[in-house]
Fold this sequence. Notes:
With 177 residues, the chain is mainly alpha-helical. It has a domain at 24-142: Up-down Bundle (de novo design (two linked rop proteins)). It is built from 4 helices and 2 strands. The chain has helices at 27-43, 50-72, 76-102, 108-138, and strands at 12-13, 16-17. The protein has a two-stranded antiparallel ribbon. Helix 3 packs antiparallel against helix 4 (108-138).
Amino acid sequence: xxxxxxxxxxxxxxxxxxxxxxxxxxxxxxxxxxxxxxxxxxxxxxxxxxxxxxxxxxxxxxxxxxxxxxxxxxxxxxxxxxxxxxxxxxxxxxxxxxxxxxxxxxxxxxxxxxxxxxxxxxxxxxxxxxxxxxxxxxxxxxxxxxxxxxxxxxxxxxxxxxxxxxxxxxxxxxxxx
Length: 177
């Protein structure tokens, strides 16, 4: 007997539902998910102290979780605030990873890969914060109109945002680390 396909089920691709909606359509959230998966893969077979593994996994999963939570908040200020918390969690991830590679708890190759991805995620989060901050100032934000990803093209530094260790290279401010 052949099982009948359930109606209303989305097709899955690589473990995720293919139809991106809400925060799942955000490049920042998608890249943060990839980062969490890569950190997990780089640490799962290592003999790490429990406290170290626990801390790095809590901080790396906080990045995408804060992006999602911020997106679903009712105000633009809340959204930006949660993106800032995601940025702070990302800095915590980087700190843990640096400790791990310096103490030979992580392979240098794995560290280099996740460090580069972490820098990219940080740049995207800051770009999104800048874009939303500009929309906050102009009063032009509408969640329904958030179809484009113009935050990748932002280049001006916003004085309302805190200094970032994840500077966009096109800002002429060098690279953070």
